[in-house]
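Weekly modeling sync, notes
Attendees: AB, CL, MP (scribe)

Item 1: holo prediction request
CL wants a bound-state model with nicotinamide-adenine-dinucleotide before deciding which constructs to order. AB pointed out that an apo prediction alone won't tell us much about the pocket. Agreed to run with the ligand included and paste results into these notes for async review.

Input as submitted:
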Amino acid sequence: MKRILVTGGAGFIGSHLCERLLNEGNDVICLDNYFTGSKRNILHLLGHPLFELVRQDVTHPYFAEVDEVYNLACPASPVHYQYNAIKTIKTSVMGAINMLGLAKRVKAKILQASTSEVYGDPSIHPQPEDYWGNVNPIGPRSCYDEGKRCAESLFMNYHVQNGVKIKIVRIFNTYGPNMNPDDGRVVSNFIVQALKGEDITIFGDGSQTRSFQYVDDLVEGMLRMMQTPDDFTGPVNIGNPNEFTMTELAQTILDLTGSSSKMVFHPLPADDPRQRQPDISLAQQTLNNWEPKVQLREGLKKTIAYFDDLLSETEG
Ligand code: NAD
Ligand code: UDP
């Protein structure tokens, strides 16, 4: 049994990770300030004898005797991370410093949830880990992108300078149950709009692409990354290479929900990346032949069922 700290544990990905770690017999501390996460996501874990919930902000130091840390605390949706851009930078940078300090002190392994956003609006396609990216350092997405890039730098420097055992994963667009219905990201927006019979809001002409990964595949990849040898730090891309335009995504969601919602077109937000697709060869080589198993339609069906229940609960 390991003692494991998950920051951002009440969020979308964090809640799945906490559940999986508990199912494997670990002692789990879930730390969150509930900015974008919710107690609802972890309600079913509250009675578990090995689960502990801590209300805490990662911008403040926190100490616990643990063996592993998964550092996920950070708003991930553009709407939420731009709501208080300075706080987003503090969360990424001070959060990384505080959690790395903890890992150093108790000699824990620590994994950083980095992002495909470190590649910005990429000029290389698909994106391998050795691509340095194309990020606007002063644009509206920079609080998130540069915060995560600085966090990667901090992780690498704590490793080189202080011998901290670090792992960096670069997560590509991930979706699934426990996303916040007001999250603002494309999959949750389109599903909620389709289920409510509201217009489907496509930004730009809908030809921009993303590659969508189901959350279970990501959690499997993160667990495997944590178990790699200590001299392997990453960064490693974790995502599903199947790439879709936003119009294709909207059409698939309309088909699966049977909704009669109409697609409407809104202006494209500034610096919105044109395309994104992970090169996952490194993950396949280093994470014990890891590869995504759940394809888009199957994952969307499970996510639609989740939102359908949630909406009937809140409307009922
Ligand atoms: P989410 O917003 O659902 O979860 C983030 C969690 O962090 C929330 O529970 C939130 O309350 C918490 N949090 C935010 N600021 C905090 C702070 N200062 N102190 C403590 N807790 C704080 O988002 P998610 O999709 O679950 O993302 C989790 C992590 O994975 C994030 O670090 C995100 O950058 C990264 N990531 C996600 C995706 C994706 O597609 N979902 C892609 C790339 C990277
Ligand atoms: N998007 C959209 N309609 C929405 C929300 C997002 O067309 O209601 C687009 C957005 O402009 C982007 C893509 O969907 O091109 C993915 O957006 P998301 O915020 O989910 O993730 P990110 O841009 O960070 O990859």
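Recorded for review: The CA atoms of residues 16 and 219 lie 7 Å apart.
Action items: CL to compare against the apo run; MP to circulate these notes.
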